[in-house]
Amino acid sequence: MSDEKIALVLGATGGIGGTLARRLAADGWRIRALHRDAAARPATPGVDWIQGDAMRRDDVMAAARGTTLIVHAVNPPGYRDWDKLVLPMLDNTIAAAKASGARILFPGTVYNFGPDAFRNPSETAPQNPLTRKGAIRVEMERRLERAAAEGVRTLIVRAGDFFGPGAGNSWFAQLVRPGRPVRTITDPGRPGLAHQWAYLPDMAETFVRLLGVADRLPDFAVFHMRGHVDPDGTAMIAAIRRAVDRPEIKLRRFPWWLLPLAAPFVTVLREVREMRYLWREPVVMTNERLVALLGVEPHTALDTAIRETLAGLGCLPQAAGVAGDGVSPARQTA
C-alpha cells in the first residue's frame, strides 16, 4: 500500500481552493484537481487535473478514490444558482468521503452569523444569519456535522472576508479595480467600523497546521481565525496607499444606494447587497480555540499581504500579466 498523501481539491481554480492546493503540495501532498475541462488546464507540478464535474456524484466518487483528504472549496461562478447547486455539490463530497475514508476540509466564513451573535462570536455562538447565502452556509455545516456522526471527519476554519492572490471574486476586489493601477479606493464600510479580513495564504497555513495535530481533533472540528481586523476601516485603505506609494489616492464611498436598482438584474450585486450588514455592524470572530491548540495563529504582515494581493489582481506595474489562476506557484508568507 502506498504511503503517498493524496488530496482531492474541488475548486482548485478559485482563490482559497488554489491556495490550499499550493500549500498542501508544498507539504508533500499529491493534488488531484477536479475540473470540467481538465485537458485545457496548464501542466502544474504536483497537480493532476481530473476530468469531471462536482455536480456529478460518480465523478467526485471516482476522483476521491484512494485519497485521505477532500478540500471542498467549490462555488458556482458569480454566485449564480447558489441555492440549486451548492448543497448537491456538498452532498457529493460527503458521499465520496464516506466511500474513501477521507477527511473533508471546508473553508467557512463569517456569513453564518447575524447581528444577534454580538460583536465577537465564538465557534458556538448562535447562527441566525439574515441572508440567503448565510442560511445556505449554516445548512452546509449542519450536513457536515450530521455526516461526522456517521464517521466522516470534517475540519472547518471560519474566517473573515477573503483577500490574497487569486481572490478575484472578493470584497477586496470592490476596493480597487482588478487589472488596473490603483487610482481610487472604494470604501464600503461605515466610518469608524471594525471589519474582519482573512489573507488566503494564512488560512491555508492554518489548515495545514491543524492537520498536523489531526489526532487531537474531534470528528467535527470548527475553528475561527482572527485574521486581519481593521479596527476602524482605515488600516486596509492606508496599506493599499503604502503598497502603491501614493498616499494622496482619493477615497470614495461604495454606492450602496445603487444596489436596490441594479440587484434584481445582476446576481453578484444581489449577493453584495445581502452582505451589507457586515459593513454596518462590527462582527469579529474570536480565535481563542485556535490559539489554545496551535499556540499562535499564522499571520502575514498586512503590508506584505496587501502587496501580494494587488500583484495577484494585476494592480501593480510589476505584476502585469499575473493572472492568479488558482494553482500556479506564488510566494507563501505565513
UniProtKB/TrEMBL annotation:
Q: Which Pfam families match?
A: Epimerase
Q: InterPro entries given for it?
A: Epimerase_deHydtase, NAD(P)-bd_dom_sf, NAD(P)-dependent_oxidoreduct
Domain of life where this protein originates? Bacteria
Q: Which cellular component terms (GO) are annotated to the entry? A: cytoplasm
What residues does the NAD-dependent epimerase/dehydratase domain cover? 7-213
UniProt-recorded name of the protein = Nucleoside-diphosphate-sugar epimerase
One Gene Ontology MF term? aldehyde dehydrogenase (NAD+) activity
